Amino acid sequence: QLQPAAAQMAANLLEQFGGAKPSTSPCDVNNTQSRNVIVFKANEVQRVAGLDVDLNRISDILTDIGCSVAGGGNGSFSVLPPTWRPDLNEPCDLVEEIARLVGYDEIPVKVPAVPVTGRTGLTAQQQTRRAIAYELAETGFVESLSYPFVGEEDIKAFRQNVDEVAEVSVRIANPLAGDRPWLRRSVLMTLAGTVRRNLHRGLTDISMYELGHVYFSDPNAPAIPALPGSVRPSNAELAALDAGLPEQPLHVAALLTGHAEETGWLGTHRDVDWSDAVEALQRVGKRIGVKFILEQFKAQDAPSSWHPGRSAQVCVLAEDGSSVNLGVVGELHPHVCEALDLPKHSAAFELDLTELFKNMIMKPVQAKPISTFPPVKQDFAFTAPIELKANELQSAIEKSAGDLLESVELFDVYEGEQLGEGLRSLAYSVTFRANDRTLSGEEMEEVRKKITDAAEVLHATLRV
Known about the structure:
single chain; alpha+beta; Phenylalanyl-tRNA Synthetase, Chain B, domain 1; BirA Bifunctional Protein, domain 2; Alpha-Beta Plaits; 7-stranded mixed beta sheet; 4-stranded antiparallel beta sheet; elongated
């Protein structure tokens, strides 16, 4: 044992250098605690460390570190650790000693297999949500996380009727703040409060976004049952809980204020307007592979919180071809900006991502071959009823052009007395190209006629 030898050396040193006189009858308390035997299976070395070590070497290593080893005939050892190794208590401790003495460099390196699909483990919706957040951040927006509680002042600031909103909102029984007793129905409403606080702290040019849930109350929903906490609810009880919960779709909202461009050698600064919100929205759509369709509101149909002439409804085409409403983009109403102390022309958008996920057409992106043949570019200007939506006419152009269409873009909208009452001009720039040939004049004349015929079905005539 180490302790008697250490005690004897200490006594000799005290006698040699300190003039001490050792006792003739040393006292040995001998309080050594007995160790428990560890049942150790040799295959643990392979399972834990990945090392292939034979039984004899395992026995030799354990003996070398002071253990008493017995057995091993059936691959199992009885190991008694020495008293000076209190760290050896479990089979994994013995595996660690064996790996240390065999050599860590002998442990084989196994790289985890990469899935063939290259997926990250996230669902398609989680990947889309992350892509939206990344795109907004890369565009210059700062993410915000606000409390989802609103009150009368918030509702009034957005030019909404408090009684009507309260009737369809989820009321909190024990709100954190007495003046905000309802859960929000719009992420933009709480995001605007965050922007307002930053403006009051001296910031001027702010671009913020938030991903969060909104809450819609259903007056016809069943009451949520009160269940005991000590017993696992049955499937029927869990279904009753789910049925009573409010609808909680995921929304994304973004708000821009101040200067979109600073004063520089290109000219003076430019204030934020509706076009900046539309650009941010279109960048998000391009990132996730979705083509957003904007349908401008008529002045009398615009939501009360939005500018009647500078806002549009955001839609997407579902797989069945129907148009699905996702939200709004544009400038906030001047009265809303005034109530929230926001600069004029503050722009924003808000989308229902839950609805978007339901209607996204998740298909692999097919790369198109690059054509070496020249394109043919033509402009089409139509006189159309104001009621005709620009995207409806654009869809007619796309269907009529077929495989020869490369791109179509609305570049001008004009309304004036010379067109007549109830009419406006919609001008599109259309590019045609074939992958295997140069388009002839006869082919282009045929395609042009198909486009004009399709437009006439929608009561739109080609301007000469």
